[in-house]
Amino acid sequence: LIFWFVFFQEMEKLTFCVHTRPDALCRLICFAWAGGGTSQLAQWGKVFSDSIEVFCIRFPGRETSLIGPFAKDMTSIVDEVTNVLLKELKEKPFAFFGDSFGSYVSFAVALHLKEKYGLEPVHLFISGGHAPHSEGFLAVKSLPISDTKDEEILAHLQIIGETPSELLHNEDIRKQMVLTVREVFRVLQTFFFEKAEMDIPFSCDITCFNGSDDKVHDVQAWQELTSGDTSFYELPGGHFYLLKLSNESFLSKHITRCIENAAL
């Protein structure tokens, strides 16, 4: 009993599910962007069909998990997600959706599941993320973020729309956002993936989404990571294009169709 109590405590801390569907055909596990997004993506549970149950991963050190420490490296995040969700992922088909920082975490978790347990998502949805072996991702990892001034980080966040400017007038929020960015980059710099050293890791289809006004991402290289099909979609908006209701509608319908076709 003590084991199950602790287990469910850990699951509640790590995951967020707004609308439970025990009889769903498939689970969609969402990995949000660096600064948050858990509550927004978890709301997808209300707009998806009854065939899909939506879970969202709560990253330590942000949102409702602010009191917890940040993960020190990508391996720590992957291990925690795997340990808590492994039972559920073995029960029925699952798909991953990752946005920005979440796209790299979802890929790292998927890779670990495939290599260690022979488990694979029925579909991998990537949003606003470089392929993990591309020049774009290597450039991100090499940024000297620890030496960057707070003002430069805040200016960058405003450019990409990470945080509304009115919130940045709050000193506590400014400090938290700068800390989050530094910690996220520290985690990314611990993630190593060498495509040349391994066979094609996945057989599932991969779909890449990007905002039309966002910076260009190296997405074509995702084709090299699966023997399945790879699709690319550009939707109106910037870095947070997926928060637009019209885009949310497209995403929910498209993701549902992909999952139902794959999980049949």
Task: Describe it.
- With 264 residues, this protein is an alpha/beta fold.
- It has a single domain (1-263), classed as Alpha/Beta hydrolase fold, catalytic domain (Rossmann fold, 3-Layer(aba) Sandwich).
- The chain is built from 8 helices and 7 strands, in the order αββαβαβαβαααββα.
- The protein has helices at residues 2-14, 38-42, 74-91, 101-117, 135-141, 150-160, 171-188, 245-263; strands at residues 15-16, 26-31, 52-57, 94-99, 123-127, 205-211, 230-235.
- Strands 1-3-2-4-5-6-7 form a 7-stranded mixed β-sheet, sandwiched between helices.
- Helix 1 (2-14) crosses helix 3 (74-91) and helix 3 (74-91) packs across helix 4.
- It starts with a helix and ends with a helix.
- The model is unreliable at 1-11 and 63-67 (pLDDT under 50).
